[in-house]
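User: Hey, quick favor. My workstation is busy. Could you predict this chain's structure for me?
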Amino acid sequence: MYSGVMEFRPPSYFALAALIDGPLHGYAIVRRASELSCGEVRLSTGTLYAVLDRALAESLVVSGEAYVKNGRQRRDYELTAAGLLALTRESERLARAADTVSARIRAQTDPVRA
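Assistant: No problem, here it is.
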């Protein structure tokens, strides 16, 4: 079971979210995270591998064996059940936070209150 140690900042959230549909290598994670965040998250190589190292240490992802494709060494990363659970919980937490703030904004701009 996931202990909740890894902090989900946007780079880690979108890096793990990139793996929802299946295993990807590092560069593909970078591209997919950017797509999912509408370009708001642009993972550097250092940030990506720091996120993956933490996620590996917490068993949120597993890594496959290294392989060579087009002359480049690659390794695929895959979300584990614990990783999917952690991502689900974070997604639900963010949705609750957004709902709370949106309700407060609506309450302040409600014409009945004015």
